[in-house]
Amino acid sequence: MRLIGGHDYYDSALALGRVPDLVFVRNKSADIESKDAEDAGIYQKAIPGMQLRDLRSGRTVPVGPAYRPRQQSTRVALSATAIAAVVCGVRYQGVGLAADVDGTHHAEFFWSEEALRAWLAELGLAIDRVNRGLLGRSETHAATLETYFAPLTLPQPALDFLIARDVAIMTRAIPQRFGAGAVAWSVNHDQLKAIAFYKVLDPFSMMQELSQFVGGVLPRASAPTAEIDDQTRKEKHGFDQYSFRRPPQRG
Predict the structure, then answer these.
(1) Which residues form the domain of 156?
(2) Residues in a beta bridge with 79
(3) What is the pLDDT along the chain (251 residues), one digit of tens a residue?
(4) In 88-232, at which residue ranges do the beta strands (DSSP E only) sit?
(5) pTM score > 0.70 for this model?
(6) DSSP character for 208?
(7) What is the tally of structural domains in the chain?
(8) Would 152 be classed as within a structural domain?
């Protein structure tokens, strides 16, 4: 497959070979409004409310979409960003965390509960409690971190929505201080590396998924049919003006 426009982490997998008639063009597609995506059945869940405990001081450090960033611990301040990536018909959800710990800034992206808990432990933090937070529909609110991080294969109406718009990749990031409705989906770009999506799919797996989706799911423009006139057709088959007639006899 040929990649046109920008550079992303999975480009290195092109070293395994190319299929020239498969083309994926990046950074040329218009954003998709969140309401249009939701009408098609594509939702992004809010991060469940998490209450963290500073293991050193014993104080709580709340973080989640229901809170504005605030500091209840003397040494720790946290803020979160909900990340969603729809890649080749599957929705993945992650968390971007920014932490100021003892005056040092840390930032990281997580695509699993295990990775999130391990990183917090390295900073001396533990998740004490997970709340569903603000009440809402199951499509937009996760009751647990496990359900939040679980990948979801999109239903057919949502997949049809993507196919109609030639969408293989789209992402959305919602800082906790913003309302979800104000953020559109970015489409067919080269920014998966920026959200550490290589933690979900390595370069080779990502390239394979993308090639199969572009080549087997998204519509492809067929090559125009070449028109050949009768004279050219006869010549290509070795016929001439006497092929079906007796040549004139010399008297």
Answers:
(1) 31-201
(2) 98
(3) 889 999 999 998 886 556 667 899 999 889 999 999 999 999 998 888 788 888 888 888 766 443 344 444 456 777 888 999 999 999 999 999 888 777 788 889 999 999 999 999 988 889 888 775 544 556 677 778 999 999 999 999 999 999 999 999 999 998 765 454 568 999 999 999 999 999 999 999 999 999 999 999 998 654 444 455 666 566 555 666 655 566 666 65
(4) 90-101, 104-110, 125-131, 152-153, 169-175, 186-187
(5) yes
(6) H
(7) 1
(8) yes
